[in-house]
């Protein structure tokens, strides 16, 4: 099965512990854990700092599953949950793959930390997850809420810890079964 994971730094596997922010080892990144558990061919299209693109890139027709998890950076940059969801709708609507091949994951809510100084951002991340679910229903695509997977976050309140990546992979595997 050919899978593409399209997201931000938490898809990339960003390790916030280093001064220059490296990347966790492959065995500690959810995308690689998913590949190891399933035997699928998985392309990691995570990118640090990625906000929801204004248009969708080309995804090959041979893609069996496109997993999209975006929106946290949009909220961190000051967009409201509604504005982020509108961007997400434009992005998802521009994807040429069959709707049955799309899985939208609402990112886990952020927590107070180095990058999350206000409770408002936490509330916004919860609201964004609810809006993502409504959007997935509207567009007829699969949906998962990573906020239900108890993901441990690093000191910054945004990035997964290594345990967080394992918890995310376990939640996603359960969702895909």
Automatic annotation (TrEMBL):
<dbReference type="InterPro" id="IPR036514">
    <property type="entry name" value="SGNH_hydro_sf"/>
</dbReference>
<keyword id="KW-0378">Hydrolase</keyword>
<feature type="domain" description="SGNH hydrolase-type esterase">
    <location>
        <begin position="5"/>
        <end position="167"/>
    </location>
</feature>
<dbReference type="Pfam" id="PF13472">
    <property type="entry name" value="Lipase_GDSL_2"/>
</dbReference>
<protein>
    <submittedName>
        <fullName>Hydrolase</fullName>
    </submittedName>
</protein>
<dbReference type="GO" id="GO:0016787">
    <property type="term" value="F:hydrolase activity"/>
</dbReference>
<dbReference type="InterPro" id="IPR051532">
    <property type="entry name" value="Ester_Hydrolysis_Enzymes"/>
</dbReference>
<dbReference type="InterPro" id="IPR013830">
    <property type="entry name" value="SGNH_hydro"/>
</dbReference>
